Amino acid sequence: MSSSPLAILRETFGYEQFRGPQQAIVEHVVAGGDALVLMPTGGGKSLCYQIPAIARQMNGQGITIVISPLIALMHDQVGALHEAGVSAAFLNSTLSFAEALDVERRLMRGDITMLYAAPERINTPRFLDQLDELLARGQLSLFAIDEVHCVSQWGHDFRPEYRALTVLHQRYASVPRIALTATADALTRADIVERLQLEDAQHFVSSFDRPNIRYTIVEKKEATQQLLRFIEREHDEDAGVVYCQSRKRVEEVAQTLCEHGINALPYHAGLDTKLRQTHQDRFLREEGIVMVATIAFGMGIDKPDVRFVAHLDMPKNIEGYYQETGRAGRDGLAADAWMVYGLQDVVNQRRMIDESPASEEFKQVMRGKLDALLGLAEATDCRRVRLLAYFGEKSAPCGNCDNCLEPPQVWDGTEAARKLLSTVYRIGQMSGIGFGAGHIMDILRGKTTDKVNQFNHSTLSTFGLGAEYSEVQLRGVLRQLIAIGAVAVDAAAYNTLCLTEGSRAVLKGEVPLMLRASVSGPAQGKPRREKSSAKSAAKSAVVAALDDSAQTRFAALKAWRAEVAREHNLPAYVIFHDATLAAIAAIDPRSLGDLEGVSGIGAKKLEAYGEAVLEVCTGAA
Ligand code: ADP
Ligand code: ZN
Questions:
Q1: CA 479 to the chain's CA centroid
Q2: Alpha carbon 219 to chain centroid distance?
Q3: Dist CA 410 CA 606 (whole Å)
Q4: What residues make up the domain containing 146?
Q5: Rounded to the nearest whole angstrom, what is the distance from the C-alpha of residue 526 to the centroid of ligand 2?
Q6: 371 — phi, psi (to 5°)?
Q7: Is the CB–ligand 1 distance for residue 330 below 6 Å?
Q8: Protein residue with least CA distance to atom 13, ligand 1
Q9: Is residue 43 lining ligand 1, measured as CB closer than 6 Å?
Q10: What is the CATH number of the domain that holds 459?
């Protein structure tokens, strides 16, 4: 077999062409260059180091060490390589002593093309000795550093162990390195480069666009009910991920979904490790599971057919949001990123920053990042344009986000904002203490509540001055005011509102506030998709084109695949993707020759499964 990258792509992985910048990256690394690769989730990062690893091994340059924080996924990653006929192994704490010893022996014998290891392993004296010896023999070919944003505290997955990776360039300066991540704004990127001394590495920055993902952000009313409606309307029986901020919420939401007949599982760091692993395995191995999780879940999850990612609480920043939503639709088929957010999210996130023990400089950065996300949530124009702009990319309105599909009504909230702020001001003057958002809105709307009576607030000059505004409208105004820092929430004093430096300009009417008129998402307004749900839209792209007999073959192939996956203890998509099965079903193969060239069938899979696939197809006739 040839060691040319294209030959490996075709022979080993069964793909016809490189995608986007893959070829340039692979060639650069095969030739011994360092690389920093920024590519969105689903962009095809794995091949960027796997193909150089194989090519360099074939050229006699030895082993590639893949550094990854994802211990729980290494088994499946290595399993996927075995399926493609590549010799790979992993070293981590899940192995028994004897198993680890066996891997080490194979490593030193040169039997392994790719070794996956966690960063904490790299710095053990034992492992360093082994690397030293491989280096001395000229058999240390390449370091691939996956999820490299973990090295930066500005990234959202900071892992102190990643800092220790400085050993790579210090101790093994002659060994090329490829570092990869799906997330890195300019600040994080600069930090990665500095920490790992990648100044001389070539940077490959792909477009971050994920055109098949539809972004929707709706106002939070009753989050769980909104989620239920969203899933029932658009994602019946689909696999999805629901992110919540707290463990308690995760448990509650998972339970509610289950009570409504949705196959949901909880996942958070408070669950026993075994149970967490079981839930992750079920999500990967079974169809149509909804994982309700904290952000502890998801990094490195390469399940291709996640049809939606929902956020019930707002993440900390756009990187987090983009990384999490990016887990939808890796297969390129239609998928949804859906979020509900409300005033409380804004208040909570602000408070978490304010109360964190971090330095003021750090907090400032975090506030800036939060503001960018608030800007996205409040946006009345294309969400994608804003997302991509955040990553430094210019684009045109996408036609596949809520704002493009149904341009929101906007209203001028400038006057309402002035009235709100002056109420806050006057109340402070009159009572000498602050009050929360609810009370301020009651005063403005002229409601005589117990509290209003108690403090005699109906005598305020702004009492009833905003009677024309609904509470929802005023909440929107408040969110904006908090988002732009024109009002602050004092977490230490029962979330009372107080004026800030930024209030003055708004009070003077110098800051125009255009607000989205309230929409509450799929339950109201016209249906966002014609009759066809996201599910059928997604499925149809692969399957709808099949005629009846091909549908029968497709179903039979899926059943066969499930069996094989179970036997191999791997997720089904590691054996073959849906798209590959659909392509097989469509051509109705009669010989192994017919199967050659089907995307996703490499030489090893053809040899291992070709006959069985032919049998399934003829049997299904
Ligand atoms: P990432 O790690 O960037 O999120 P992956 O490496 O998991 O993405 O690739 C995403 C999907 O795209 C995988 O299922 C992979 O097999 C597929 N893929 C990658 N490169 C190609 C290619 N050149 N042709 C066809 N499919 C590809
Ligand atoms: Zn758009």
A1: 25
A2: 21
A3: 57
A4: 5-205
A5: 18
A6: -60, -40
A7: yes
A8: 44
A9: yes
A10: 1.10.10.10
496 and 608 belong to one structural domain: no
pLDDT in tens, 509-562: 888 888 877 654 433 444 444 434 444 444 546 677 888 899 999 999 999 999
Q: Are 255 and 372 in a shared domain?
A: yes
Is 303 contained in some domain?
Answer: yes
Higher-confidence residue: 495 or 527? 495
CATH code, 174: 3.40.50.300
The alpha carbon of residue 220 and the mean position of all alpha carbons in its chain are separated, in whole angstroms, by 21
- Does 46 contact ligand 1 (Cβ within 6 A)? yes
Q: Is 493 contained in some domain?
A: yes
User: Cα-atom radius of gyration of the chain, to the nearest Å?
Assistant: 27
Residue with tokens 């996201």: 534
Q: Do residues 323 and 389 share a domain?
A: yes
Torsions phi, psi of 308, nearest 5?
A: -155, 150
Per DSSP, what are the bridge partners of residue 482?
A: none
**pLDDT tens, 341-398?**
988 888 888 888 888 898 888 888 888 888 888 889 988 899 999 999 888 889 999 9
Answer yes or no: do 111 and 256 share one domain.
no
Question: Does one domain contain both 496 and 468?
Answer: yes
In the DSSP assignment, the letter for residue 147 is S
What's the number of domains the chain is made of?
A: 4
Percent of all residues in the chain with a pLDDT value above 90, rounded to a whole number: 67
pTM, two decimal places? 0.81
- Report the nearest-CA residue for atom 15 of ligand 1: 44
521: in domain: no
Report the CATH number that the domain containing residue 598 is assigned in CATH. Answer: 1.10.150.80
Q: Is 116 helix (H, G, I), strand (E, B) or coil?
A: strand
User: Of the candidates 406, 441, 475, which is a domain's last residue?
Assistant: 406
In angstroms, the CA 82 to CA 23 distance is 23
Domain boundary, last residue among 406, 435, 456: 406
Do 493 and 562 belong together in one domain? no
Please check whether residues 198 and 267 belong to one and the same domain: no
Model confidence pLDDT, tens digit, residues 187-201: 888 999 999 999 999
Encoded amino acid at 553, one letter: R
Q: Which helix (H) or strand (E) holds 267?
A: strand 264-267
Residue 219 pLDDT > 50? yes
The separation between CA 612 and the C-alpha centre of its own chain, rounded to angstroms, equals 36
**Distance in angstroms (rounded) separating the CA atoms of residues 372 and 375:** 5
Of 177, 174, 173, 152, nearest in space to 36 by CA: 177
Same-domain pairing of 192 and 322: no
Query: Coil, strand or helix: which one is 216?
Result: strand
Whether 523 is covered by a domain: the verdict is: no
Pocket flag, ligand 1, residue 306 (CB < 6 Å) = no
How deeply is 323 buried, as exposed, middle or buried, from its count of CB atoms within 10 A (0-12, 13-18, 19+)? buried
How many CB atoms sit inside 10 A of residue 267's CB? Answer: 24
Give the residues across from 205 on adjacent strands.
38
**Across the strands, what pairs with 309?**
241, 337
